[in-house]
UniProtKB/TrEMBL annotation:
The keyword Protease applies. PANTHER family: MUREIN DD-ENDOPEPTIDASE MEPH-RELATED (PTHR47053). GO terms for molecular function: cysteine-type peptidase activity. Belongs to the peptidase C40 family. The lineage of its organism: Bacteria, Bacillati, Bacillota, Bacilli, Bacillales. It comes from the Bacteria. This is NlpC/P60 family protein.
């Protein structure tokens, strides 16, 4: 039997997000050493990175932060992110608690980790700049995991060739902000010719001020929204079923150009806390370049001008679902 060692650590999170950089300290957390691999309690990782555990079955634990769904294997080493399978170290169960390895945390949650064993500190940096490879990773699988293209991946990893050795530190080819452009500033607002758009917007306005929580549980039980659960709720109450995560929502309906966005359309953006090019934020257009959305508390659910340079340079796409 492989010996197991438990150490009490402080975890220090450096997090870049909308409009601010955060530093948080989480004390008295357990790090496990087993077979030369370091592990943290999965529950602590989910709490620190603001993921909500959505359920489980015999094979997987399911978690989301609102951007993407993760399926974490209870046994074995194959995880899944929004339909993309990839390897991690098997999660271990110690005294009824699940523990996940630091190098798997890197792959699962788009963060960089380092450890100071002398000071008993674990450092987590979000977003991560590095992706650590496992056996079986290929250029194609890496492009799927990092939401990029082979050309962009190889442009920043010029010596990357297959077969890719396990433990290779891949630079993540983060897409840089767009050049902001404003279109049709004086465009007349015309709500879509459907009964649903005005009702969706009206319900959304009635919820202004509802607090924000990353990876929020179901409303109204949680009394909180994140960006995608907010859209899921206000559309769902009007008979339009949307999936839970921003990434999945960005695939619904029909893609439309920025100049064609009308009230009731969904708009999607990158978020600073991610470097892997995922869809990180979403809102619903209400006209005149404004959207209903939520991204921090205060203000919680709010109206934001998305035709502002800050949001335009993070704009990804828009979808018509009505």
């Amino acid at each position: 039997m492989i010996a197991l060692q438990k150490l009490q650590m402080s975890i220090i999170l450096f997090q870049k997000d909308f409009f601010e950089n955060k530093r948080k300290i989480f004390k008295n957390k357990i790090l496990i050493l087993k077979g030369g691999i370091r592990y943290l309690a999965l529950a602590d990782v989910l709490e620190i990175l603001e993921y909500d555990l959505k359920g489980r079955n015999a094979k997987f634990l399911f978690a989301t932060d609102g951007s993407e769904f993760l399926s974490l294997p209870r046994t074995g080493g194959i995880a899944r992110r929004e339909g993309v399978n990839f390897r991690i170290d098997p999660i271990i169960n110690h005294q009824g608690k699940f523990y996940v390895s630091l190098r798997s945390i890197n792959r699962l949650f788009n963060v960089d980790l380092s450890v100071d064993m002398v000071k008993r500190q674990v450092f987590i940096r979000q977003p991560g700049l590095i992706f650590i490879t496992f056996r079986g990773d290929t250029i194609r699988s890496l492009t799927n995991l990092l939401n990029t293209t082979a050309k962009r991946l190889l442009a920043v990893n010029k010596n990357l060739i297959e077969p890719i050795p396990a433990g290779t530190r891949i630079l993540i080819p983060t897409v840089q902000p767009n050049s902001p452009t404003l279109e049709n500033r004086n465009k007349t607002v015309k709500i879509k010719q459907t009964e649903k758009a005005p009702n969706i917007i009206s319900l959304g306005r009635n919820l202004i001020g509802t607090p924000y929580r990353f990876g929020a549980g179901p409303y109204p039980r949680s009394r909180r929204f994140d960006c995608s659960s907010y859209l899921q709720y206000i559309f769902g109450k009007n008979g339009i079923a949307l999936p839970r995560t921003a990434r999945a929502q960005s695939r619904r309906g029909s893609r439309i150009g920025q100049r064609d966005i009308e009230p009731g359309d969904l708009i999607f953006f990158r978020r600073p806390r991610y470097s892997d090019n995922r869809v990180g934020h979403c809102g619903v257009d209400i006209g005149n370049g404004h959207m209903l959305n939520t991204y921090q508390s205060p203000p919680g659910v709010t109206i934001t001008r998305w035709k502002d340079p800050y949001w335009l340079n993070r704009y990804i796409t828009a979808r018509e679902v009505l």
